Amino acid sequence: MNRDQVKGRVKEAKGQLKEMVGKVTGSATTRVKGRIEQVVGKTQATYGDAKEQFRKRS
């Protein structure tokens, strides 16, 4: 596992938490920020996965 995979998954989890907090508090802004953070985290993790697969093939 590389850093991009780990950081991406952590960021995705933080985004999920932020989205839940936004739902509980009724804050649409916090919900949207959480959703954005999830997408960014998922993208970073996917990049890390691709990097790892490339490294294994070489």
TrEMBL record:
Record-linked Gene3D superfamilies: YjbJ
The name this protein goes by in its record: CsbD family protein
InterPro entries: CsbD (IPR008462), YjbJ_sf (IPR036629)
Positions in coiled-coil regions: none
Residue ranges of domain CsbD-like in the record: 4-56
Family stated for the protein in its record: Belongs to the UPF0337 (CsbD) family.
